[in-house]
Design brief:
By secondary structure, this protein is of the alpha/beta class. The protein is 38% helix and 18% strand. The protein contains 25 helices and 27 strands. The strands form 5 sheets. A 9-stranded mixed β-sheet has the order 1-2-9-3-8-7-4-6-5, sandwiched between helices. Helix 13 packs across helix 25. The protein is globular and about 75 Å long.
Length: 710
């Protein structure tokens, strides 16, 4: 059991002998525990902690468990010292001074940018200890076997590649840190990591003794559930409520109003901010705003752009410049949402409504790392966006993440079948062997018989091929994916793109959609570019006249969960059993608040089964040309569930079902979607409701804006 520490606001436990009473900051208990921690970390105290005035709560509450070799989950706010809390005990536990072993510590991070950041932050203390830390990711794939590092930072995809191609490189592994694990948990990449960790424990752990796993995050709504999925008998430390937020809302109906806000906010002097991070909705928004700002007389020399379609070198250049520059404005998508150290950001501007509470917390947390409070401005275009923002802030205040139920994504089994087969020395896989490589809960749900059926189905599309005695070998498609290095990930398929190259330097700027329009102009890396020449794979450019015509290859869009949507309805005063209706140009919008998946199946059910003139099914509303009746059509759960099969490809995409979802048998796809979509609840809530009008003009204006949310 865990308990609430009344002195520190910390959830700690579960083992009494590992639970220190640290008292309040600067108390005798606090100083005593800090002294005990210093003595327990004789080699790592000074390299990791000496530059700080005092140990942080997460460090004092966790070191005993970590030095004892326990698995643990550490959840505390951004810049609270989680990384040092984990790495210092792991180094003490498993690395000798100036040891020359293969990697004994593995740090798994969600993104390449975080991999780069962790390596950079840890290089100095490791060097002081005579130790080496390196990285391996899609951007940095090399391995130094002559001078191997004692610690390796990587992503789930690169870990998968290492296990298939270079498992011997990990044979000395003893400790693993799972950085910002909430970003992965509940996604196909998180499910892949779960299986990889189980495979490591079954191979490396069996050889070396138990592997110690420690997960960290700034935002975990359910530490216990997360610990059960990834760790064993985990100690939990959840500290603090984060910094206070000094914020305001600002109406910005377009790019020019946002730039005017930045012009008023940025610069030296009282009431201004020298370093501003602006979060926007998408890559094109980043480029458009950065390009416009680069033409602004005051802002031009201080503008940076960051998003996932920029080249590796360009992203790393922007990250370094923004971290080093005391005065700059950076426009970014969610790529800078995570804990990359980009220096002390004075102000965060949220210029697009995030789809989740965790995302907003992460964005706000980027500001004021070394200040007492986080300063932010949340921008909105209409009352609908203002209501959504206020709702998310209210959820943060209540500590309510509106969590979605955890459901394993079976598409990961397709990828892991290929990964396991290629890792095996004899290069074959059976249902029984596959079952033995899954965590216990998954092995119970997907037994050897079901897995053999899956392997047989995968042999029909050349992913696998039948072998002898219920064994399967690699098919042509799997071998091609292995040769291209595509087998190791569960991210979505990479879209068709062309590379943009600066003609004067030869420097790669990024990737744009192959069918990008605009003729002789485009915008990349925050600057307008003139196209000089094109080939099938590259576009050569130089800085040129103003343009905003760049298209980036689509990578999906954020969805709104049913949990967030239902909570939003309550927040704006919609009573249970009510379906508000508002007039829009050309028809009516019925506000259902069932989320992106619920909106899709409700719209199809009304259109095909009840012949309603439905135009769109959106996350919060259904748009119809006219009402067929004065009451909602009665929908039963079976009828609603029947709509899943015709929509299964689109619903799989909206549900984030994973890269190999369409390779699953149709029955597996439908089983997964029926787990994800609560048809019985949606049907009951729709059928037992009644149409109502907006309570007043203000609510009507809010509902009109929400009806347009896609």
């Amino acid at each position: 059991m865990t308990r609430k520490d009344q002195k520190n606001g910390c959830l700690i436990g579960p083992t009494p002998d590992l639970r220190p009473d640290i008292g309040t900051e600067n108390s005798a208990e606090w100083r005593s525990e800090a002294d005990a921690m210093r003595r327990a970390l004789p080699r790592t105290w000074y390299p990791f902690f000496a530059r700080f005035p005092r140990p942080q709560p997460v460090q004092l509450l966790s070191w005993r468990a970590l030095r004892a070799g326990r698995d643990a989950v550490l959840c505390s706010p951004t810049a609270s010292g989680k990384t040092e809390a984990v790495i210092a005990p792991l180094v003490e536990n498993y690395l000798e001074p100036a040891s020359k072993t293969l990697p004994r510590l593995l740090l798994v991070s969600p993104t390449r940018a975080l991999v780069n950041d962790l390596k950079r932050r840890l290089e100095e203390p490791f060097a002081r200890l005579g130790l080496k830390i390196e990285r391996r990711s899609g951007d940095h794939a090399q391995l130094d076997r002559q001078r191997p590092p004692q610690a390796l930072v990587t992503t789930p995809e690169s870990l998968d590649s290492l296990m298939v191609r270079h498992l011997d490189f990990l044979k000395e592994l003893r400790g693993i840190m799972l950085d910002e694990l909430h970003i992965l948990d509940g996604t196909a990449r998180g499910d892949q990591l779960r299986i990889l960790l189980h495979r490591l424990r079954a191979t490396i752990g069996k050889r070396n003794g138990s592997l110690q796993l420690i997960a960290t995050s700034a935002t975990i709504h359910d530490p216990k559930g997360l610990a059960e999925r990834y760790l064993e008998d985990a100690y939990q430390v959840v500290t603090g409520e984060g910094k206070a937020i000094e914020g305001q809302f600002a109406e910005c109906r377009g790019p020019n109003e946002l730039l005017a806000l930045l012009d008023r906010s940025w610069g030296p002097g009282e009431g201004r901010y020298r370093k501003i991070l602006v979060f926007v909705a998408g890559r094109r928004d980043v480029e458009q705003l950065a390009s416009l700002a680069s033409g602004h007389p005051r802002l031009s020399s201080r503008v940076l752009a960051h998003h996932g379609s920029l080249s590796r070198n360009e992203r790393e250049r922007v990250e370094k410049r923004f971290a080093d520059d005391p005065s700059a404005i950076c426009f970014a998508t969610m790529t800078l949402e995570l804990g990359i150290d980009i220096g002390d950001v004075d102000l965060v501007v949220v210029a697009a409504v995030p789809s989740s509470v965790a995302s907003l917390i992460q964005r706000i947390g980027r500001g004021g790392r070394r200040q007492k409070n986080s300063r932010m401005i949340a921008c909105y275009r209409d009352l609908g966006e203002l209501s959504r923002l206020k709702h998310l802030f209210e959820l943060i205040k209540r500590g309510d993440f509106c969590p979605e139920p955890y459901i394993f994504k079976p598409s990961v089994l397709v990828q892991q079948a290929g990964s396991l087969l290629l890792q095996s020395r004899k290069k074959w896989l059976s249902g029984r062997v596959f079952e033995a490589r899954l965590p216990g809960d998954l092995a119970s749900e997907y037994n050897a018989g079901l897995l053999e059926d899956l392997l047989l189905d995968l042999s029909s599309n050349e992913w696998l091929a039948p072998g002898r005695s219920s064994r399967f070998v690699a098919g042509e498609r799997l071998l091609r994916a292995f040769e291209r290095g595509e087998i190791h990930g569960n991210l979505g398929w990479e879209p068709v793109t062309v590379e943009v190259v600066d003609n004067s330097t030869g420097r790669s700027l990024g990737q744009v959609a192959r069918d990008t329009e605009g003729g002789d102009r485009l915008v990349v890396a925050g600057r307008s570019r003139e196209v000089l020449r094109r080939s099938e794979r590259q576009i050569w450019v130089r800085e040129g006249v103003q343009s905003d015509q760049t298209r980036f290859a689509p990578r999906g869009r954020p969805t709104i969960s049913r949990e967030v949507a239902r909570s939003l309805a309550e927040f704006i005063g919609i009573e249970n059993g009510s379906l508000p209706i508002v007039e829009i140009p050309g028809g009516l919008a019925i506000l259902h608040f069932q989320g992106s998946l619920g909106g899709e199946i409700l719209a199809r059910c009304l259109r095909t089964r009840h012949q309603w003139p439905v135009e769109h099914g959106r996350a919060l509303a259904i748009v119809v040309r006219s009402l067929v009746s004065d009451e909602p059509a009665h929908i039963d759960s079976e009828t609603l569930g029947d709509q899943i099969a015709p929509l299964r490809k689109r619903l799989g995409s909206l549900a984030g079902a994973g890269r190999y979802y369409r390779d699953l048998p149709e029955s597996w796809q439908l089983r997964y979607l029926n787990q994800v979509i609560p048809c019985e609840q949606i049907a009951r809530e729709w059928s037992q409701s009644r149409f109502v009008e907006a309570a007043d003009d203000k609510q009507r204006e809010i509902l009109l804006a929400l009806a347009a949310v896609s």
